[in-house]
Task: structure prediction
Amino acid sequence: MRESSRGRKNLSIFICAHLFVLLLLISSPAQQKKPAGQDDPIKLHADLVVVSVTVTDSQGQYVHGLNQKDFHLIEDGSRQEIDSFSSEEAPFAAAILFDMSGSMEYKFGMVRGAAASFLEQIRENDQVAVYGFNNQVRQFQEFSDSRLITDYIWDTKAEDSTRLYDCMSEALDALAKREEKRRAILLISDGWDSSSRKASLDSVLKKAFAAGVIVYSVDLIDDDQMRGSGSHIQYLRRGRSEMKQMAEQTGGRYIHSPQGDKLEDSFSNIVEELRNQYTLSYYSTNDKRDGRWRKLGVAVSREGALVRSRKGYYAPKS
Result:
């Protein structure tokens, strides 16, 4: 009788011990099975793409009164749904970049005067910074709505080489941090990049696309200097070609003013253009973060209207 009781007791202990071990195995995270169809959570990246659009008629006059439904936005052949739309005179952030290299000696006064004229036309909420470049990159004025050009610019001399792309890179980094959706660079030069150490045409274009910055390039190269076939001539032609490319690719304008006589009018027109742009934003239907180029196209439902905007952008890269 005692042996039977002891046997039942031992059996109960054995069963309880195995049940305890089994419960531990079931509750262990390493042994838990996910419900059918349940995978690790996927992180979705919603990257907003902002596009500033200039619309003019055949006479070059700005077209007003367009609505969101009048715009058609295409990315790599696929129609995109516009998430937000603005046609108001929104504030802008702009960086003026002027060449201070030795070749600018006789044009420097005109450039400084045009920059001063530009600042006189900005509004209270517009933000403008001023940079200069030769063999150094200098920021003369941080972003502000001041209408007075800094005295440092008047005291600067034109000398040395040209770090154009290094200056653009620094200005683009600053513009990328701005809250304003309308962002622009006004580049004034009479040559080509000859001494940048960090940046290149490709790298500054990528930064401009990423930050939605429009480039307006003012070419002060004297046409008489473009004749011939020497190495100096080839460099000048390259400089002109690259200024055109930056403006075209970002939706800006290339301005040819070899004598500098169009500077003040050009700067006034740029201020007016920034005030009369349409701003569109959307979330791309392509959620791949592969860093690849995506081609953009913008059209409007208005006969005879001419549209200018950036040609595309590089997708974010994980």
User: Anything to note?
Assistant: The domain at 92-275 is CATH 3.40.50.410 (Rossmann fold). The CA atoms of residues 184 and 214 lie 5 Å apart.
